[in-house]
């Protein structure tokens, strides 16, 4: 008989994981504490924008033509406990307010609620990103609370999906990492991740702390690559070099690789920034803070990029205050193909200029609702063209395809001045310059 799966927390990670598990053929029951999310998902609507997720959902939620009906939703912990053989915990682990450390309260609450309802043999699988050492404590919570006793146990299975590619990354991961304490846990996870998902995919079996560390070290490495190239951008800026050419040239070395070397306003989102900070905080708690002091520099280079974009805009506008200047901002989300504005560098830059008196108008293909919620005082336009109308400068801050495909000549007709600042090094400078625009980007020569 096929395993029955539950997913706790239906955000970016959990909703995708639940739909993907149904796609693999499992019966899936997903729970969230937010009623509106559950109601949306039951209607086949995703609470967030993620390419391909709605289609996947509707293939498996009952009520849609040809759907398998394998994916259901609930808010009832007892139903979850009675249903699942394997429970994936996908709740949020944000940065604590006013601290670097990770806020574990959502994971602790979810695992506490779940454990109390584990009335039959079950494997609880943590997928949230947590500080090393967390799984050990959570295993003790399960042992203390689960009515099933020793038949309920914990495993840790970190997730590496990228927003914007969540469905693809979940169905075709480049590796699966599991931290386990028993052969049974390993066997169950091998069964979950058997073909087609697991075919040819490296399956790394390890202990709890290594599994937890794999996740935070992977994100730290990615953050380091981005801050490295942004430091090189500053060197290029100071010396007249071109960071895009530099990235291409060093990237031909396989040991370095071309990916994650796009200089610009830096990394944001609900993961990289908070994960490197939580990692530093944990190092401190373990008494080895010096091991990760380099991450402080990675973080500070990253945060500096946002301010440098603001200064680039100021200089390009002739220096002095932004007061009375009209600025169009293209992009609000932390990356393209997502509606996620958590710690978005684009909104941060827009907000800084707004707070310095600039008249900022923002347009984003999918992030407008979320942006309005967290930054209600900015002005918003319904299209790139409307945002650019009458602007003294255009800031390209999230590299949506829609922006790469803009016609610079047509846009030039509505702008007050043809000044484009590319905060993502993603537009074609030659194209914009040919249409009469002054093109500026971080770490690239002026002409
Ligand atoms: N978003 C991403 O691309 C990835 C996220 N992660 C990690 O996955 C975890 C979740 O991240 P997201 O999905 O982005 O967060 P999210 O905030 O989008 O989703 C978390 C969900 O958990 C729910 N929740 C909170 N407490 C709960 C509880 N006690 N019981 C049941 N549900 C509860 C929330 O209502 C929310 O819907 C985090 O640890 C994150 O670091 C890992 C890889 C990728
Ligand atoms: O732990 C997580 O949640 C996830 O965090 C990141 O995924 P994600 O946050 O979706 O986005 P990325 O594609 O990593 O981009 C992060 C930020 O870095 C920026 N970035 C990326 C690449 C680059 O070359 N330059 C650059 O500035 C992006 O614009 C974005 O703001 C990791 O890539 C995932 O593997 C991981 O699972």
Automatic annotation (TrEMBL):
It is an enzyme of class 1 (oxidoreductase). It catalyses: UDP-alpha-D-glucose + 2 NAD(+) + H2O = UDP-alpha-D-glucuronate + 2 NADH + 3 H(+). InterPro entries: 6-PGluconate_DH-like_C_sf, NAD(P)-bd_dom_sf, UDP-Glc/GDP-Man, UDP-Glc/GDP-Man_DH_C, UDP-Glc/GDP-Man_DH_C_sf, UDP-Glc/GDP-Man_DH_dimer, UDP-Glc/GDP-Man_DH_N, UDPglc_DH_bac. Pathway: Nucleotide-sugar biosynthesis; UDP-alpha-D-glucuronate biosynthesis; UDP-alpha-D-glucuronate from UDP-alpha-D-glucose: step 1/1. Residues 328-429 form the UDP-glucose/GDP-mannose dehydrogenase C-terminal domain. The keyword NAD applies. The keyword Membrane does not apply. SUPFAM superfamilies: 6-phosphogluconate dehydrogenase C-terminal domain-like, NAD(P)-binding Rossmann-fold domains, UDP-glucose/GDP-mannose dehydrogenase C-terminal domain. Its EC number is 1.1.1.22. This is UDP-glucose 6-dehydrogenase.
């Amino acid at each position: 008989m096929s395993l029955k799966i539950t997913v706790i927390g239906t955000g970016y990670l959990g909703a995708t994981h639940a739909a993907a598990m149904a796609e693999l053929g499992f019966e899936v029951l997903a729970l969230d504490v937010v009623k509106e999310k559950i109601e949306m998902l039951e209607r086949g609507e995703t609470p967030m924008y993620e390419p391909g997720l709605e289609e996947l959902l509707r293939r498996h939620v009952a009520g849609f033509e040809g759907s398998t009906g394998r994916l259901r939703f609930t808010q009832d912990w007892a139903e979850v406990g009675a249903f699942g053989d394997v429970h994936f915990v996908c709740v949020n682990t944000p940065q604590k307010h006013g601290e670097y450390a990770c806020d574990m309260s959502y994971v602790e609450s979810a695992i506490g609620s779940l454990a109390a309802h584990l009335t039959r043999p079950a494997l609880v699988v943590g997928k949230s990103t947590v500080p090393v050492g967390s799984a050990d404590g959570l295993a003790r919570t399960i042992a203390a609370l689960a009515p099933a006793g020793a038949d309920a146990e914990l495993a840790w299975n970190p997730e590496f999906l990228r927003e914007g590619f969540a469905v693809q990354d979940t169905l075709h991961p480049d590796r699966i990492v599991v931290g386990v304490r028993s052969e049974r846990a390993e066997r169950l996870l091998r069964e979950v991740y058997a073909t087609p998902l697991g075919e040819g995919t490296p399956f790394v079996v390890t202990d709890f702390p290594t599994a937890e560390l794999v996740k935070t070290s992977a994100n730290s490495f990615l953050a380091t690559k981005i801050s490295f190239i942004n430091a090189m951008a500053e060197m290029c800026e100071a010396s007249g070099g071109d960071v895009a050419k530099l990235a291409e040239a060093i990237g031909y070395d396989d040991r370095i690789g071309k990916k994650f070397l796009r200089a610009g306003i830096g990394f944001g989102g609900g993961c990289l920034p908070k994960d490197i900070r939580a990692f530093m905080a944990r190092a401190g708690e373990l008494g080895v803070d010096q091991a990760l002091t380099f991450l402080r520099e990675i973080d500070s280079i990253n945060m500096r990029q946002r301010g440098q974009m603001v200064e680039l805009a100021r200089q390009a506008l002739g220096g002095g205050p932004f007061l009375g200047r009209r600025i169009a901002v293209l992009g609000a989300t932390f990356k393209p193909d997502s509606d996620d504005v958590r710690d978005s560098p684009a909104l941060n830059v827009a907000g800084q200029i707004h707070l310095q008196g600039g008249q900022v108008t923002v347009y984003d293909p999918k992030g407008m609702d979320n942006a309005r919620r967290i930054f209600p005082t900015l002005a918003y336009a319904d299209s790139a063209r409307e945002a650019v109308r009458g602007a003294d400068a255009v800031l390209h801050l999230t590299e949506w395809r829609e922006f790469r495909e803009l016609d610079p000549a047509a846009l030039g007709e509505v702008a007050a001045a043809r000044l484009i600042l590319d905060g993502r090094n993603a537009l074609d400078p030659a194209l914009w310059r040919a249409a009469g625009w002054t093109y500026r980007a971080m770490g690239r020569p002026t002409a």
